Amino acid sequence: MQSWPVGSSLATLTAFLLLGGAVGKSAQLPLQTWLPDAMAGPTPVSALIHAATMVTAGVYLIARTHALFLLAPAAQLTVGVIGGATLLLAGFSALAQNDIKRILAYSTMSQIGYMFLALGVGAWSAALFHLVTHAFFKALLFLSAGAVTMRLHHEQDIFKMGGLARRLPVAFWSFLIGSAALAALPLVTAGFYSKEAILSGAWADGTNGRVLWVAGVVGAFLTGLYIFRALFIAFFGEEHTHVSGRYGWRVIVTLSVLSVLSLLGGLIELPPAFGHVTLLSNLLAPVLPATRQVTSVVPLLLASLAGLCGIALAAALYWRPARAPTETALWRFWHSAAGFDWLYDRLLVRPVLWAARINCDDLIDSIYDGIVWMTQLLHQQVRRTQNGRVRFYTAGLAIGSISLIAIAVLR
Questions:
Q1: How far is CA 357 from the centre of its chain?
Q2: Dist CA 200 CA 272 (whole Å)
Q3: Fewer CB within 10 Å: C terminus or N terminus of the chain?
């Protein structure tokens, strides 16, 4: 690989093939449809899938093979474009969801989109930094959501919740901390430092990077809007579903530990403006190039302001009791994740089913049908030897014995 020049066709082809696997593994466009559907599983499993490297393995793969992507600029730029497009699509889709777990699933797609964006602009360590902090607050959010649904008889529709801040204070504060970290609330959350590192790296990358920086800023606004929409609807307003049962100490301890990590986990890597702590970068230095940083604080302030504006708009729209949204054409479009399920059904599922129907009696099936026919024929012949007649069995025993004796004598 070291002998390949920059822009080599072999390097580019190899990088794109790796990218195809990473896109499917990390639920990025256009292979993202499986992730929201996977949320049908138990909430602790969802938390593990989203927090560990189950979904983020694609990010790790590209980061570890960064030398190859540096030889294929077209593939690396594609990584960033896919990440920017995914974070925007997932952000809009999360705004049109009523299921609290699907909202969090789309938020995972969006945050992994940020990681892909970072990889696309060469901010390798920033991508892994966000991978680490995302694990903290996404596990916290899923387990907080599970703590809520567990007490609401497995109800997951946020519009059937309401008033839970008073009834479930542990779940409320945990979800609030997780939401603040997801929305990158400035200075006090881990998500702020990792997301700022990504956007700083994008701004420092030049023209292409600054286009992706705009996508990241818009995504920051959407993130604050959709996650605090869920928070205000579920935990404020009037109570719609009866709350029953109590939490055990295991739930409280787990949520408390993750809450602390979601607030303080970002202190392992601070930009120069906040003290320039580089514990993670130093750890990754032997295998990853350093992430470029901007010297101006204006891009960082704009990104932070975008997230705060999203939170403020969510408060203005959903602080008071809110009704379920009207199902307009635009709402249905984003509720179905821009129609990708519909598109997959018509481009992939239906053609495969059609081909299976017209090909149900092909040559391969004839071979297996022949094996079945031969087995049945042999079975019919063998069955005739089992007729229940003692004289027939005795004659068979005598013939067999004589045959064995004859073979022994002749040999």
A1: 33
A2: 12
A3: C
With b for 16 or more beta-carbon neighbours within 10 A and e for fewer, the 98-134 pattern comes to bebbbbbbbbbbbbbbbbbbbbbbbbbbbbbbbbbbb
How far apart are alpha carbons 118 and 129 in whole angstroms?
Answer: 10
Collapsed DSSP state (helix, strand, coil) of residue 262: helix
Cα separation, 138 vs 141, whole angstroms? 5
Task: Read off the tokens for 68.
Answer: 């190859």
| Residue 5 structure tokens | 């020049």
| Helical pair 100-120 and 73-95, crossing angle rounded to 10 deg | 160
**CB distance 307 to 224 below 8 Å:** yes
Distance CA 49, CA 38 (A): 10
Helix-strand-coil split of the chain, %, nearest 5: 75, 0, 25
Do 35 and 108 meet the contact criterion of CB atoms below 8 Å apart? yes
Q: Return averaged pLDDT per consecutive 10 residues of the chain, 411 residues in all.
A: 78 93 91 82 78 84 92 93 94 91 92 94 90 92 90 86 87 94 91 90 84 93 94 86 79 92 86 68 78 73 90 89 75 83 86 83 77 90 78 85 89 74
